[in-house]
Design a protein that fits this description.
Number of strands: 2
Strand content: under 5%
Helix content: over 70%
Subcellular location: Cell membrane
Pfam families: BPD_transp_2
Strand order of the largest sheet: 1-2
Radius of gyration: 23 Å
Keywords: Cell inner membrane, Cell membrane, Membrane, Sugar transport, Transmembrane, Transmembrane helix, Transport
Membrane topology: Multi-pass membrane protein
Shape: globular
CATH class of the largest domain: Mainly Alpha
Protein name: Xylose transport system permease protein XylH
Number of domains: 2
Order of helices and strands: HHHHHHHEHHEHHHHHHH
CATH topology of the largest domain: ABC transporter involved in vitamin B12 uptake, BtuC
Structural class: mainly alpha
Length: 412
């Protein structure tokens, strides 16, 4: 039976009545986003811990810059890996692809005498072909991605040894190729002892972030969704602004804005938009969340899976170019264990083992956690074997936390 209110007695609740959340609502907001919030808290805690343990050396301008340069390729791989994991797959071949594409680039430039951009183009083309190769076997033939990429890990490592003749190939003939991973933009706007251009770029980024968050807040209000109180909203913006500008100051007082950081920022923004606001991104989440339901709803599962691996090949090639640029050459053992670092970054950043869950920014944050841990332990002189033990425990705890959250949610 339907009950209809008398004419004139119906009231329309304006969207703005659901703007802010009280104490209980804020607790619910925090609980619901505990995993996402937790990785940011963990990153801040790690930064503070190693700052104390290293006597402030981990926060020096030079060390902050080195972290960006040394771990950028892992963050690039993490962006692609989290998309693969969201779709319910895994890619074990990316470390070998990094080595192979870097070797192709080095052979093109060093042995072939081609310009630096030709080496980059050759590496990217190779990465796309490798991604298509993996995607064909996974999407069209139906072989599990674990098996396909395990075979690829062996195949492309072997091809790296073949084209390099099992020896290292270096250096690149001019400094242009090396600028990809080790170059800086500085002095464009001058500055008394620091680079003004770096500070301006980050200030623009802060403004962009604030505008984006404000628009998101307004959209949620218009749909009567729960949002935090305005003071807490402003506090969040302020904390992010302080963190970004502090990071910018460290870079500005060192060598300026790393070119590879610009590349990484562009990739993060582009892939965040693709995964959150495009049809392709929603279909990736649908496949990972419920494959049968996605197929029944009209998602072209084979095509999406194919392009997921093509994209992973592309990003692995980008990482290969960055790594070879950083190394000023190609080595047979390049990229060793990179796939495990990328997988760990994705899981620590919030990706679910079963698929369907994860964010690009979460994977990047997970990669930063791994980078801060590795860098901090290196500064403290921790033995390499013990570093591996600690990383393994962190990954295990992250996955255990994911399973615990799922069981707790299922018991409600």
């Amino acid at each position: 039976m339907t009950v209809t209110a008398p004419r004139g007695s119906q009231k329309t609740v304006p969207p703005a009545t659901a703007v802010t959340a009280g104490t209980s609502e804020l607790r619910e907001l925090f609980t619901r986003n505990l995993r996402t919030s937790g990785i940011y808290v963990a990153l801040i805690a790690l930064v503070a811990l190693f700052a104390v343990l290293t006597g402030g050396a981990s926060l020096s301008p030079g060390n902050i810059t080195n972290i960006v340069l040394q771990y950028s390729y892992i963050l690039i791989l993490a962006i692609g890996m989290v998309i693969v994991i969201i779709a319910g797959h895994i890619d074990l071949s990316v470390g070998s692809v990094v080595a192979f594409t870097g070797a192709v680039s080095a052979v093109t430039v060093i042995k072939g005498g081609m310009p630096w951009w030709a080496g980059v183009a050759a590496a990217i083309a190779t990465g796309l072909l490798i991604g298509a190769w993996n995607g064909f076997w996974v999407a069209r033939v139906g072989i599990p991605a674990f098996i396909v990429t395990l075979a690829g890990m062996l195949l492309f490592r072997g091809l790296t040894l073949v084209i390099l003749g099992n020896v290292s190939l270096s250096p690149f003939p001019d400094g242009a190729y090396g600028q990809i991973a080790s170059g800086f933009l500085n002095g464009l706007l001058g500055g008394p002892g620091y680079d003004v251009f770096t500070l301006v770029v980050f200030a623009i980024a802060v403004i962009g972030y604030a505008v984006s968050q404000w628009r998101t807040r307004k959209a949620r209000i218009s749909y009567n969704q729960m949002v935090s109180s305005f003071p807490l909203f402003i506090l969040k913006i302020a904390l992010v602004a302080v963190a970004l500008m502090a990071f910018a100051w460290q870079l500005a007082t060192a060598r300026g804005l790393p070119i590879v950081l610009i590349l990484l920022a562009v990739l993060i923004m582009a892939y965040s938009v693709v995964m959150q606001r495009s049809v392709f991104g929603r279909q990736v989440y649908a496949i990972g969340g419920n494959l049968s339901a996605a197929a029944l709803s009209g998602v072209k599962v084979q095509a999406i899976n194919f392009w997921i691996f093509v994209n992973m090949g592309f990003l692995a090639a980008v990482a290969g170019v960055v790594f070879s640029s950083r190394s000023n050459g190609a080595q047979p053992g390049a990229g060793n264990m990179f796939e495990l670092d990328a997988i760990a970054a994705a899981f620590i950043g919030g990706a679910a083992v079963s698929g369907g869950v994860g964010k690009v920014i979460g994977a990047v944050t997970g990669g930063l956690i791994m980078a801060v841990m590795s860098n901090g332990m290196q500064l403290m002189g921790v033995d390499q074997s013990m570093q591996s033990v600690i990383k393994g425990l962190v990954l295990l705890l992250a996955v255990a936390f994911d399973i615990y959250n799922k069981r707790r949610a299922g018991s409600r």
